[in-house]
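# step 3/5: fold
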Amino acid sequence: MVKRPRKPTAPLLIEDDLPPKSGRVRKRDPKQPELPFDPMPERIEPCLAKLVQKPPHGDEWSYELKWDGYRLAVHIETSGVRILTRNGHDWTHRFPGIEEEARDFAPSTMILDGEAVVFNAQGIPDFGLLQNSLGGRGGKLPSRNSVLMAFDLLYLDGHDLTKMEYGARRHLLEDVLADKQGAIRLSEEFHEDPDELLRHACEHDLEGIIAKHRDRPYRSGRTGDWLKIKCVQSDTFAIVGYEPSTAVPGAIGSLLLAARYRDGWKYAGSVGTGFKHDEARRLKKQLDKLKTNIPAVSVPSKKVVMTGPSLAAEIEYRAWTHTGTLRHPSFKGLREAEDWAEVYRLPD
């Protein structure tokens, strides 16, 4: 469509011998907001990735690695830094290295969305090391060697970016984190075949990959805008008992697991690998304080000690068996009480 030509404006009348004057200032329209900026939100409910078996293909998708750690939102404000967990708990004091680096961004204000991880000697994120750096489940230690792998930017210098498409947010994030290699780093975007990327991730013992739709805004919850494809399944289950070890005195031999089901619990199998002798003894001491005569689930074995479902564990597994239990499970570590909402729920 051809646009109508603009009407020419009158030329400026300037008298060289007079000082320049400004025009008459109009009164502000009271219906117009005084501030053209968006206030920083106290908290943004995170966008969650939906689990799928195969990665999507197409130019509308962006791909990166899936990080094995704690989801965090880092609020960098003029008054200081706040680090919030996925469920909104303030853990600023638990991540001093990330907080210190975040202060270097001032006077800019922003909200970084990312995952706190601890790398092992091979440069691979290790959830157990992250837990240990925090003092274990219920520990109060600050994690001084954790790194925030930032993968989204939700707010920047007075502007709410959540309504902006991911591709544009990604460009801004790359500008903000250019050359950052300290306690806050950019989660790299990969421009290659997603099947090959997944294969490489699995070969290097990584958790998997994430696919994000470039044209979607930031929407809270598991909408399908973000997809996760795992090399090995990993979920959180409640511990409802244990089987004593016959080889190590004062230790557990295996943990009994349960998933949420309707208004209660359903047995999900047992896990007997993934913990060392010292950890197996510590777990027994913790669980002995939670013994109960009213078990949350019924289990096939009688040589077990039943406990209340007060502890939750992160478990890796290959699949579900036809009997509804985990296939080849492995213990990764205890989850914090704040992560209780993440316990796996079985479909009705």
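# step 4/5: annotate
The domain at 233-342 is CATH 2.40.50.140 (OB fold (Dihydrolipoamide Acetyltransferase, E2P)).
# step 5/5: archive (pending)
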